[in-house]
Design goal:
heterodimer; A: 425 residues; mainly alpha; Formate dehydrogenase/DMSO reductase fold; 14 helices; globular; B: 253 residues; alpha+beta; Alpha-Beta Plaits; two-stranded antiparallel ribbon; 7 helices
Chain lengths: 425, 253
């Protein structure tokens, strides 16, 4: 594999500015939604004293989880020595920072008092996983920022491996922290499970690689830079492993809950009679977001087709958003069990399934986070050389031979980073 | 044809200097005055003395006496200035009446439910800024100045005791500040307790319209009414399995 030069996108075409305009519009919509919610108070949203975290949290948590996963490609190169992923590492780190920025913007703008962000940054209760997360999230910007610097500045290249290892450990801790937000909630039947932290780590790989695939394919297609099947099949392979692993965790999570009689109610609610949550779980999260992508990615015909893989990645993302919706909102909709064995009623909706309908400002804020992440990526690839000039097979695949190319699409030809030759004395 | 400016006289310069100095003095005075005023008077001391862990305030509720009356709820509303806007899903409720129906025996109970002021409050554990806190005397409060409105405490509370202020508040009581975008809950009428009085709900329940179902007092004092009452009969702690050691106890459920 030869050294591939990097260069920024020219970014002067009408299409580039149109794309930028759309993302800016999404950000503006998000800001407008946030302003409307903060000005009037949260009663104008679908949220209530039962569903205290609504659609903005669904998008925020999804983006934050995806952010740590998007760093995966860089980690594989730096930590696990897979040399093929090296050219994609800076972009992987950039996408990961952009997604985190989008998620955090949504999270902060949904606070009851976003103007008190400075309080959150200066006053800490270290028993709270939220307080830890504030450090983990801001630290992620610093660590990955330094990582990008080490990768892009040739004089610092020698430090990129240790920094990459540190960034990898940091992202594992970060996602553990995000999963633990729910795992530590002892009061709620739907959460309170240690498995949520590792499950979120696997989900982060799934969402992260799905977004990364779409970013790489669309960027290289639109900028007309060469993109070979070698890179495509590697991302496809990762995606299908993590989609399967994500499904496995969902099965184990529900089986564990089913074993404990006290959790039968909430499992029944999500899996059988939870109305919209049950539908979203089975139809969108499991079938469209899990099984259909797996069929596409493992099917020899479709699994070689970029559009089909793109469709699978998009379905994974739609399934992922629904998974967060079912987890966050479905988990709150199921009533708290205050008096086991008794029917409870009150004017405060005790004992009843909470109703929730996402409102337009909430949706706009959530989509604004996605818009912000994409806006950052689109601007950054124009300003700095994040993109390799070519991802063609001839540049990426050491064993590339034009005539044999199609034959070994599915061959496992991973190779370790070559050790530097020792100089003769 | 350019105009030449006459050099200003010493008097004129002095006048300008005096004005600048006067303005600076006024500004400095205005800036410092609130601080000076804050430190000059002696801090008001609660009638009951400083907060200490020698006491553990608590409430015991006898559900056998409680029926479907709601004088406790109304008294809390009046005392603390919270009220609805006709939007039940987002209106705050610091205390509510809950009806229980035992599926196996068919028995029905009514009881008031509010913040139970845990010894180990999950709301305090999860609050990122420490705005949710437990006083040494067992009263769990929200610091309205450091609450950022993240609502994690509402996710963590097993008792659904907390409300988010979903809209602008009016008719606030000077002793009970509230604010849109923050979380609030029963304060055990901390302003009354600190001046040696009992919470408004307990007072109303013991009044002519109430049923005398609530007892307030120091759980650490074996001679207090609440300790004697709790020692005579078995009491229940809601969700005792969670080990949070609530300060609000129940009898009869």
């Amino acid at each position: 594999m030869r050294e591939i030069p990097f260069s920024p996108l020219p970014g002067r075409s009408a299409e580039y500015y149109t794309l930028l305009g759309w993302f800016a519009l999404m950000v503006a919509g998000g800001l407008g939604g946030a302003w409307y919610m903060e000005h009037h108070g949260h009663w104008v949203t679908g949220m209530s004293n039962e569903i205290v975290w609504g659609t903005p949290h669904v998008f925020a948590v999804f983006l934050i989880v995806a952010a740590s996963g998007a760093l995966n490609v860089a980690s594989i190169a730096s930590v696990f020595g897979r040399v093929h992923y090296k050219p994609l590492s800076p972009l992987s780190a950039l996408v990961s920072l952009a997604l985190l920025a989008g998620g955090l913007a949504v999270l902060v703008l949904d606070l009851g008092r976003p103007d008190r962000l400075i309080v959150a940054m200066t006053t800490y209760n270290f028993k709270s996983i939220f307080a830890w997360n504030i450090y983990l999230y801001t630290g992620f910007f610093v660590v990955v920022g330094i990582y990008i610097w080490m990768m892009m500045e040739w004089r610092m290249n020698k430090y990129k491996s240790p920094v990459g290892v540190f960034a990898f450990l940091w992202r594992l801790t970060l996602t553990t922290g995000t999963g633990s937000i729910f795992g530590f909630l002892v009061a709620r039947q739907a959460y309170d499970a240690a498995i949520m932290a590792p499950m979120f780590i696997i989900l982060s790989f799934t969402y992260g690689i799905a977004i990364f695939y779409l970013v790489v394919v669309s960027t290289y297609t639109w900028s007309e830079r060469p993109l070979g099947d070698f890179v495509i099949r590697r991302m496809r392979n990762m995606l299908r492993i993590f989609v399967a692993a994500g499904l496995y965790f969902v099965i184990v999570f529900n089986l564990t809950n089913l074993y404990a009689t006290e959790h039968h109610g909430v499992v029944r609610f999500i899996l059988l009679d939870g109305g919209v949550y049950t539908t979203l779980f089975w139809v969108v999260q499991v079938f469209l977001g899990g099984i259909v992508p797996l069929v596409i990615l493992f099917q020899p015909g479709l699994g070689h087709n970029r559009q089909a893989i793109g469709l699978a990645a998009a379905l994974v993302l739609v399934g992922g958003v629904c998974q967060m919706y079912v987890t966050i909102i479905g988990g709150q909709a199921y009533p708290l069990v205050l008096f086991p064995g008794m029917d409870v009623s009150s004017s405060f909706f005790d004992g009843v399934v909470a109703s929730y309908t996402p409102s337009l400002p909430e949706l706009l804020l959530g989509l604004g986070g996605i818009g912000l992440a994409l806006l950052i990526v689109t601007l950054a690839v124009k300003l700095l050389p994040f993109l390799p000039d070519s991802l063609a097979d001839a540049d990426m695949d050491r064993r590339f031979h034009p005539d044999e190319h199609a034959a070994h699409f599915d061959e496992d030809d991973e190779e370790e980073e070559p050790q530097p030759a020792t100089k003769a004395a | 044809m350019t105009e030449t400016r006459e050099p200003r006289s010493h008097d004129a310069v002095d006048r300008v200097r005096r004005r600048v100095l006067a303005a600076a003095a006024t500004f400095a005075g205005a800036a410092l005055a609130p601080g000076v005023r804050l430190i000059s008077p002696a801090p008001a001391e609660a009638a009951t003395g400083p907060v200490t862990d020698k006491v553990r305030w608590g409430i015991l509720i006898d559900t056998n006496r409680c029926d479907d009356c709601d004088v406790c709820v109304e008294a809390c509303k009046t005392e603390n200035g919270w009220h609805g806007h006709g939007r039940p899903r987002t209106d705050p409720q610091w205390i509510r009446k809950v009806t229980l129906h035992d599926r196996q025996t068919g028995a029905t109970h009514d009881l008031p439910l509010m913040c139970v002021h845990c010894q180990y409050p999950p709301c305090e554990d999860v609050c990122p800024t420490g705005a949710s806190f437990r006083r040494a005397d067992g009263i769990v409060l929200v610091d309205k100045h450091t609450c950022i409105g993240c609502r994690y405490c509402m996710m963590a509370c097993p008792y659904k005791a907390r409300s988010f202020v979903h809209e602008d508040v009016t008719d606030q009581k000077s002793y009970m500040p509230r604010g849109k975008g923050t979380v609030e809950s029963c304060t055990m009428c901390v302003h009354r307790v600190d001046s040696g009085r009992i919470p408004a709900c307990v007072e109303a329940c013991g009044g002519t319209d109430g049923k005398g179902a609530m007892v307030f007092g120091d759980l650490n004092d074996p001679e207090s009414d609440i300790s004697r009452e709790a020692g005579r009969h078995m009491v229940t702690r809601i969700r005792a399995d969670l080990g949070l050691d609530p300060g609000v106890l129940y009898r009869g459920i």
